[in-house]
Amino acid sequence: MTDSAATPSTSLQRRNLGLLVATQSLGGASPPIIISLGGLVGQMLSSTPSAATLPVSLYQLGLALSTLPAAWLMQRIGRRRAYLLGALLGVLSGMVAAWGISRSDFVLFCLGTSLAGFYGACVQSYRFAAIDTVAEPAQHASAISRVMVGGLVAAVIGPQVVIWTRDLLPATPFAGSFYSQALLALLALPLIALLRLPPPAPRTAGAGARPLAEIARSPQFRVAALAGVVSYGLMAFLMTAAPMAMVGCGHSVGEAALGIQWHVLAMFAPSFFTGRLIARFGKRTITGLGLLLIAASGALALMGLALTHFWGALVLLGLGWNFGFIGATALLTECHQPAERAKVQALNDFLVFGTVALASFGSGQLLYSVGWAGINAGMLPLVALVLALLAWSGRRPRQTVALP
Q1: Share of the chain above pLDDT 90, in %
Q2: 7-to-57, 88, 191 alpha-carbon distances in Å
Q3: Burial letters for 337-348: b for 16+ Cβ neighbours within 10 Å, e otherwise?
Q4: What pLDDT was estimated at residue 115?
Q5: What pLDDT is attached to residue 403?
Q6: Distance (Å, rounded) from C-alpha 159 to C-alpha 164?
Q7: Which positions ≥6 away from 335 have C-beta within 8 Å?
Q8: CB count, 10 Å around CB of 292?
């Protein structure tokens, strides 16, 4: 059973994009809740300081491990049904995490954040659903950017939920925020049910379709995937460590949550015009600008530990993620033919979120061992390396593939 007709009408395209913006707004609010509170709840429930960020790391791991199964499900049953399953698991994850807090059970809380990973994988896939629902390749970057605007609403919803509900149940601090996370996923269900997306591409290899290993070896794919890995990986790594670093430097939980809110606002606010910037200046230029802003965030973080340094660095980090990750996603569309789309997108997200998971597992230990300054200094050479590869790839003649 397919989601809809193979070629959506213009009105259906607008309707789908509007629904994707709304579902992105609700689904995208879950990660700020998990990331803002996961480390703090971990400190409260775990007897090992270096294990405090484990709940956030397990969320990232769950997301990474879910990318390939989620892509397989989307291919088999369509994006809409897979997204409905993801939202149901989002409801369950919030309930389990809250139950873990009420029982002072660190393992149960970690299970709840892990279950949120599948929902997260589906939410991350909304940008690819936006590509599927527009007919013209020239509109792909604009469609991606438009759906990511939903993250701007999520940037307000997620941190404000933390602020309003963290003490809602005085006997179990923070549990109210995770019950609210479950409610947000529940609200997304009827919106997802209204989606009418194009059917999955045929599973049989089309004429000229290449093996995945061949695509993965191409310079185009390697640069696009690496830019996405570094843009998202560094952002997630630093965002995971930031709330604990802020509280450790004497700032309040509320100030840490507001820092995450400003960060997530910066992540998605440029989406109103990122697509137009890519159309005017090119995918590589905007991706490179994003990486430069990520480096600037690290430089600002090294200048001090005042609230303005933390918030300013988080804002620059969010802006850099937007340009770097949307630019890298747009670069990825150059790498595949229509019959190759699903497997290339799944491999890219597995690499991106697998790296994010590995990085987040080390964030708590690194923060404990080398400190906030050491983390920020260590990411600068990585950014320089990807910028060099991006510039090098721009000078190479690019192989042309049929665009979806």
Answers
A1: 36
A2: 39, 28, 21
A3: bebbbbbbbbbb
A4: 94
A5: 41
A6: 9
A7: 215, 218, 220, 221, 224, 344, 401
A8: 16
CATH number of 10-201+211-395: 1.20.1250.20
- The C-alpha atoms of residue 111 and residue 142 are separated, in whole angstroms, by 37
Residue with tokens 């404990």: 368
- In the predicted model, residues of the chain with pLDDT beneath 50 are 1-2, 4-5, 204-205, 400-404
Sign of the dihedral through C-alpha 16, 74, 118, 143: negative
What are the residues whose beta carbons fall under 8 Å from the beta carbon of 85, sequence distance 6 or more? 73, 118, 122
| Distance between first and last Cα of the chain | 22
Token pair for 112: 């709840």
Residues 21-59: pLDDT tens digits? 999 999 999 988 998 888 889 888 887 776 777 898 889
Closest CA to 261 of 33, 5, 89: 33
pLDDT, tens digit (0-9, with 9 covering 90-100), for 181-206: 999 999 999 999 999 887 766 554 45
Burial status of residue 399 (CB atoms within 10 A of its CB: 0-12, 13-18, 19 or more): exposed
pLDDT in tens, 361-374: 776 677 778 888 98
CA distance 303 to 249: 14
As given in the structure block, the two tokens for residue 57 are: 């790391």
**What span, in angstroms and rounded, lies between the C-alpha atoms of 296 and 313?**
8
Give the list of residues 6+ apart from residue 92 with CB closer than 8 angstroms, or none: 115, 182
| Count of CA atoms in the C-beta half-sphere (13 A) of 218 | 19
Please give the model's pTM, rounded to 2 decimal places.
Answer: 0.71
Of 297, 330, 289, nearest to 313 by C-alpha is 297
Cβ neighbours, 10 Å, residue 85: 17
Contacts of 285 (CB under 8 A, 6+ apart): none
| Contact of 246 with 238, CB cutoff 8 Å | no
Residue 200 DSSP class: P
Q: Which residue has the tokens 């290339």?
A: 344
Place of tokens 């997530």: 264
Q: Is 334 helix (H, G, I), strand (E, B) or coil?
A: coil
Closest listed residue to residue 150, CA positions, set 302, 313, 269: 269
Total residue length of the chain: 404
